[in-house]
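Case study B.
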Amino acid sequence: MIEVEHLNKAYPLDGRQFKAVDDVSLTIKPGEFLSILGHSGSGKTTLLNLIGGLTKPNTGTVRIDGQDIWLLNDAQLSELRNEKMNFIFQFSSLIPTLNVVDNVLLPATFGKAKKADLYASAVELLEMMGLTNKLQAFPSQLSGGQQRRVAICRAFINDPAVILADEPTGDLDEETEQEVIAMFRSFNEKKNTTFLIVTHSSDLASKTDRRFRMTSGRLEAL
Amino acid sequence: MEWKLVALAQKNLRRKIFRSLAIIAAVMVVAATLFSVTTIMESVEQSLERGTARLGADLMVVPAKAETAARTALLTGKPSAFYMDKSLVARLKNIRGVRAVTSQIFLKTAPYACCDVSDLFLIGFDPDNDFTIKPWLTNALDRPLAADEVIMGRGITAYTVGFTLNFYNQPFKVVGMLEETGMEFIDNSIFISYAGIDRILAHSGQDGATPAAIPPDQVSTVLVQVAPEYTPDRVAVFIQAEVDGVKAIVTDRIIASVRKQLFVLLKSVLSVSAILWTMALLLVGVVFSMIVNERRRELGIFRAMGAKKTHIFQLIMLEAAILSSLGGIVGIGLGGGVLFLFKDAIYQSLNIPHLWPNTTRFVGLISFCMLLSLLTGIIAALGPAIRAFMLEPYEAIRGGE
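Model:
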């Protein structure tokens, strides 16, 4: 369960405070499949990162399974990110020095899990994404769409309870987009994985169970 | 330290191979310079310490006019002959603070026409009261040295125990060798009893052989051991006050003067080393600042994937430690190699005694240079690593955009 209460986040911009997230409250139950729709600069990415514990709010709380994540120390919060959640970023987020398999196994580098134990899962996920012949390739040898699919595989490798996805199908063609959404759905249904997807695409948002719109930092249910 | 992080650090370093090589090269230059300079200093120090210990005397009394020649002979082994009256031995024995005395007489060997080994010190000593030669024999000699026997310094490598050598047409059997000191005065000299010197004097010049000219009843030096309750400096003052025309050289002072001379010689090299080290620190610091800036997003992604702040700090420090250690290893290898290949030319040009450090001291020098190399990377990368440690994940991710 994710509980967000009166969340505020402002950045200094041109000499004044820009409110990226303005008094947002939201409750997400385990296994929910929901989306936040909004234009560029509406604050949806900031909200996603606040929920993921990647940036600290000015005010307000984020609770995951009843635990206020900003009361945890850095090690505890890092462990929470490593074990309970994972991210899909809107930009190319692969590490250029690591090959495809090692990129997928990246969360294991920082966690308790052993890479060897997760190797078979990594290969299976990459097969699902049609990347079997790219296991040893480096990001620079992949197309934008292939890189995005590797990043999606990485998001599932630690079997997270929550996936926070920022424009997850941005670089993908329509057919691959459908496959990715189907994969999300499959994980959601089989493993009860919670999905919070932020997107500017109404089409993608329409495929989720619950939708919100973010405008100038404020969140409203659709 | 987690091995998973070590593997990640290695992969990161391979990404910008030329940059990594530049850091390795910078640390390598520092390590090579430092290692070769400290090894030279150490070898001179060790040689002087061992040499003066072998001399076995606190004071070396020589004719006042021959002080410079005596010092030069002691430090470089350059043979020279100087003499003073033998009666001084008895006088010196009675001076306050003197515990024991023994005399030596120097004879320079002439060219090959007379002698098997030319142009070195033939040092006559008195076996009855000697405390400077026999204690340092590598093989035990439990009888007095006969008139036709000699003891050799370790530097004369063409001969060994059992050989017979001719000096001034007189045969002498080698019955012992001294341990190596690095001081040519000891290592490249041949030690002979006073009876042996008398034998040379009695027969030299006969049958057309080169004559050995030593004035009668003379000695070259008197070596003095000081009583425990006196300092060598104090006894040297007593000697010079009571005996005219002599100079009492405090052997410990020789170490100090050579050290000073060596320091002047190596001061410029040490200054260059310090400049190089500072430059290496700056270079590594700047490069790691660039690395942290370039990889902000990547570091943010690591944090999103569950990396703790300490992981980020360790990763940057590991990369610095790996590069600086490699630089240290290559530098020590290079410095040591150059020194080993050109050691004779280096020491000859410096004209100083030297003794290649023993294994323990070598390990110490290598450890010191490795530690300094490692510290170069660690100190230089500390600032950037702390900056990376402090980065908020989202700030890092956005900063890389």
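The longest strand of chain B covers residues 98-108. The remaining cases will be described in the next quarterly update.
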